[in-house]
């Protein structure tokens, strides 16, 4: 009997998302990738090829719960993998709500290993619960700031006095990100459009070039070059302002998800033989 292979929906946009897409492609397992931006789509185009079994389609756009439910009704997946960014709290919540109560649909959340940031009070690392708290604190100090938390939350930093002169925003090199920066009043050298992760030396060079006393980052783990940022800040004599991760709930590591995928496919194969 022909093996039955049911669809998988993979919410990507991270290094882990790409690695899982490559893995599913190697397994010739049908799946659909969902990404939020055109830039995220471009990074995955080489994986989704019509001449190869596996990736069926890349869908672009930010979806609310209703739109996700409609997509699930259309595709009829039996497995959904959430490999979105550790700080994409709203997306993860929407995915969970869209999957809830759907019989036969399994959801797996891929968790990124946290970075090895030093929490010693004298280590030059200042932890903040969220971007708003970081902005409030940065408003009370002086000195230039290298912001590496992306363009999505950049509007919050406009509350800082003289932000157009003090802040250097490092964002993805996409039209959308650069346009967002300019719409907020950032211009010229204050927009650093580059693709990371960055080496310690690159981070150090930028901190020194722009005379920054602070580097703002999220704990993106090894995949996000977190350790390299912290080390560079120390070498530059700058304080690292770290936006701590929100509670992400239960999840699996990248390797654990790969193992679960193998078990899931083995189960499907046995079901097609004996069913």
SSE layout and pairings?
Layout: E1 8-11, H1 15-26, E2 31-35, H2 38-42, E3 55-60, H3 65-75, E4 79-82, H4 89-99, E5 106-109, E6 125-128, H5 131-138, E7 144-147, H6 163-166, E8 167-171, H7 175-183, E9 191-193, H8 200-209, E10 212-218, H9 226-236, E11 239-243, H10 254-274
Parallel strand pairs: 1-2, 1-4, 2-3, 4-5, 6-11, 7-8, 7-10, 8-9, 10-11
Helix pairs in contact: 3-4, 8-9
Q: What is the count of β-strands? A: 11
**Element-by-element helix/strand order:** EHEHEHEHEEHEHEHEHEHEH
Question: What helical percentage do the residues reach?
Answer: 25-40%
State mean pLDDT (0 to 100 scale). Answer: 84
Q: Beta-sheet strand percentage? A: 15-25%
The strands making up the biggest β-sheet line up spatially as 6-11-10-7-8-9
Question: Based on CA inertia axes, which overall geometry fits?
Answer: elongated
What does this structure look like?
This protein is α/β, with parallel strands linked by helices. The protein is 37% helix and 19% strand. The chain has ten helices and eleven strands. The protein has helices at 15-26, 38-42, 65-75, 89-99, 131-138, 163-166, 175-183, 200-209, 226-236, 254-274, and strands at residues 8-11, 31-35, 55-60, 79-82, 106-109, 125-128, 144-147, 167-171, 191-193, 212-218, 239-243. A six-stranded parallel β-sheet has the order 6-11-10-7-8-9, sandwiched between helices. A five-stranded parallel β-sheet has the order 3-2-1-4-5, with helices on both faces. Strand 10 (212-218), helix 9 and strand 11 form a beta-alpha-beta unit. The chain starts with 7 loop residues before the first strand and ends with a helix. Residues 1-5, 116-122 and 270-275 have low confidence and may be disordered.
